[in-house]
Amino acid sequence: MELVFGLLNRAWILTGLSDLTNDKRSKKMEEKALEVYDVIRTIRDPEKPNTLEELDVVTEKCVSVQELGDEEYLIIIKFSPTVPHCSLATLIGLCLQVKLQRCLPFKHKLEIYITEGTHSTEEDINKQINDKERVAAAMENPNLREIVEQCVTEPDD
After folding, report:
1. Most buried of 6, 50, 58, 132, CB within 10 angstroms?
2. Are 118 and 153 within 8 A, CB to CB?
3. What is the DSSP string of the chain?
4. What is the spatial distance between Cα 105 and Cα 30, in angstroms, rounded to a whole number?
5. pLDDT of residue 7
6. pTM of the entire structure?
């Protein structure tokens, strides 16, 4: 009987430790998500003088982070264009890609999507902004690169 209670007690302690470990991991993912949000919130809209944060294109809730392995993370961003037919949604996605690739100090994989139901061609745009070859080709275009640079450069850079 003591053996059974001992095993049950040990299992209970391990479960408590597991919950503590999960809480720490969850808190770490929340901190990483805030770190990502701090990078993207200052990106300027290609047409307006406002930031993506000011226009509610990105919010803290639009960023999620999952641990993939030892200090490697999956970052998922779901942004909401200001109008369902926004012609610059792909450009906004490109700006998000570029700024995060440049600014994040940790190893990561990045997935960027338009929030479901917020754009008329979200599926096509999601494919474009998550295709590394298309992103690289877009950044080879000098006019497009200049627009992206204007959007992602901090005012005091």
Report:
1. 58
2. no
3. -HHHHHHHHHHHHHHHHHHHHHHHHHHHHHHHHHHHHHHHTTPBPSSSSSBTTTTTSS-GGGEEEEEEETTEEEEEEEE--SSTT-TTHHHHHHHHHHHHHHH--SEEEEEEEEPTTS-TTHHHHHHHHT-HHHHHHHHHSHHHHHHHHHHHS-TT-
4. 16
5. 55
6. 0.83
Q: Provide the residue count of the chain.
A: 157
Spatial separation of the C-alpha atoms in residues 72 and 109, rounded to whole Å:
8
| Angstrom distance (rounded) from CA 148 to CA 145 | 5
Confidence of residue 11 (pLDDT cuts 50, 70, 90): low
Which residues are CB-contacts of 44 (< 8 A; sequence separation ≥ 6)? 50, 51, 52, 150, 151, 152
Average pLDDT of the residues in 36-55: 95
Distance CA 94, CA 134 (A): 10
- State the greatest distance between any 2 C-alpha atoms of the chain, in Å, as a whole number: 77
pLDDT given at position 57: 97
Q: What is the three-state SS of 55-83?
A: CCCCCHHHEEEEEEECCEEEEEEEECCCC
What one-letter code names the amino acid at 45?
A: D
| Pairing assessment for the beta strands 107-114 and 63-69 based on DSSP bridges | unpaired
